[in-house]
Amino acid sequence: MLIVAVLLPVLLLALRIVVLTRSRGSVLCCLRPVPGKRGWRLGVARYAGERLNWIPLIGLLPRPRHVIVRRGLVVSGRRRIGSGEFFGFLEGVTALECESGTFRFELAAGYRALTGFVAWLESAPPSAHLDVV
């Protein structure tokens, strides 16, 4: 009985990770609200038309924790992540400093994922008023 109580949450978490990362239009990335004392949270970004839904990998609810609307999204900076910032888990990634309305955050991912993010931003209609630095 103890084995079932321990293995069931692990299996459910593994199933959640597989379902989230294998879904079409999903990209593995990290998000950190700014300013704040909270660290990086590993999750999945899902493109849905004019929105980017960010869903944490570890959690109970399957709904997005943050919904980022493309219209009015401002990317103000870019920086390489330091070797100790992710405890060595995700080295070689870049973080983008972003602002969407009153929500300021950093989005960190590998080169391919960030290239897709910038392409998604740039593919907005001409009336979207985007600001990418």
From TrEMBL:
Q: What is the lineage of its organism?
A: Bacteria, Bacillati, Actinomycetota, Actinomycetes, Streptosporangiales
Any idea what this protein is called? Answer: DUF2550 family protein
Tell me the domain of life. Answer: Bacteria
Which InterPro entries is this protein grouped with? DUF2550
Q: What Pfam family is a match, any one?
A: DUF2550
